[in-house]
Amino acid sequence: MKEYKISIRQGDIFYYGLVGAVLFNYMLESSSIKNFNDSLLHDIALVFALISASLCVIVRKYSLREFIYILTFNIVGILCFLSSGNTGLFMTGLAVTLLPKNSLDKVLKFMLIEEFIIFIIVVTASQIGILSNDSLEIYKGSYTVSGKTLGFGHPNMLAAQASSLVLLYLCVKRNKLKTRDILVTLVVSTVIFYFSRGRTALLLDYFAIIMIAFRKNKIVEKIIYKFLPFAYMFVLIVVMICMGLFAQLGAQNRIVQVLNDTLFNGRIGLAYRSLIVYPITLFGKQIDTSIWNQWQYFSLDNGQVMILLEYGCIGFLAYFWIIQKCLKHIKREREIIFAITIFVFLIWSMYEGTMYFLGKNFALLFLGTTEFKSFSGKLKEKKEPE
Fold it and tell me: What 3-state class would DSSP assign to 144?
């Protein structure tokens, strides 16, 4: 495992404390530990992350101009946190802006190691009776399947966590990727599906792995880079069209049933219902699920609607700006595997709301390598690929 040794510069240790605490909370929030969000351990990890971020700024001795730049970028996340108590945008913003220079690969390796260790601990705990290992019936539009949780809150959570690890592994290995890595990730993705029955995770994993396998093909490369800047707008347009059809034609319409039930497993209808029930604010509010009685099923998995409700109009626009800038920088640097990965995460965000946060969408860190690598001078613009 020599390849995964990480040498951390003394001044950057606090950044790893920030990322480590955020990932720790995120992974355990996804587990079957009851009310972990409200636990003392969760709050301690959050405070530790904030202290680490503060020490990051102090140790690096940013100038006033640099500090204002960082604060300006994170102010929306702070306001959303104060309004709703949701930390996703705030923590993601801190991780992007405080990313040490020339350290992306080390940070990704650190994330891979930590997430893998916690994943193994959670799965092991489910096998020895510490965490639950339930078999849950999952509705797939026209049929149901039984998936295992293996210590996570839901089989879909298991699929999302494991599949995110697969994509993270491919990004870590992106400069030395070999055929055996492709084959191993295909096998792992299939094993994940066997236990979780996560159809979306399986298809998106297969898509990403196959596209990565053909990444050196000139036609594939050209199509990816041409489409990449418009990927998020494409996702937003698809969601708006589907929700508009649901609103106008009703849930019983045949076209709507195909879109909502077959393609999105009911997520479009649930997202539309959430928009009707919950208010849209400037900086977001905590979603109160207690308004639904025990006979009413409620789940909000659509990332776009989740961001709008939990982080408000301003938070939604902030995420839009972050993602668009990230897409532009990935294209400029011609990081083909990052391009494929973030496109997959954007598609996945229509099915899983947490794909917007650092815990899963690690590709957002790429923004920190260019946008914030030099505060003192202007960035050297690279020629845009045709």
Answer: strand
Q: How far is CA 143 from the centre of its chain?
A: 28
Supply angle C-alpha 382, 106, 182, rounded to 5.
85
Cβ atoms of 350 and 238 closer than 8 Å: yes
Q: Angle at Cα 96 formed by Cα 94 and Cα 102, nearest 5°? A: 125
Q: Where are the beta strands (DSSP E) in the chain?
A: 135-139, 144-148
Q: Give pTM, 2 decimals.
A: 0.88
Mean pLDDT score of the chain: 86
- The span from the CA of 291 to the CA of 67, in Å, is 42
- Are 95 and 21 in contact, with CB atoms under 8 Å apart? no
One-letter amino acid identity for 180? R
Tokens representing 81? 């946190």
d(CA 384, CA 386): 6
- Residues 138, 144: Cα–Cα separation, whole Å: 5
For residue 110, give both structure tokens.
């650190």
| Helix or strand holding residue 80 (H, E) | helix 64-84
Asked whether 285 and 314 are in contact (CB, 8 A), the reply is no
pLDDT above 70 covers a percentage of the chain that reads: 89
Q: Give per-residue burial for 117-153: e unless 16+ CB within 10 Å, then b.
A: ebbebbbebbeeeebbbbebebeeeeeeeebbbbbbb
**Structure confidence by residue, pLDDT tens digits, 60-72:** 877 788 788 888 8
Q: Which residues pair with 147 in a beta bridge?
A: 136
Total residues belonging to the chain: 386
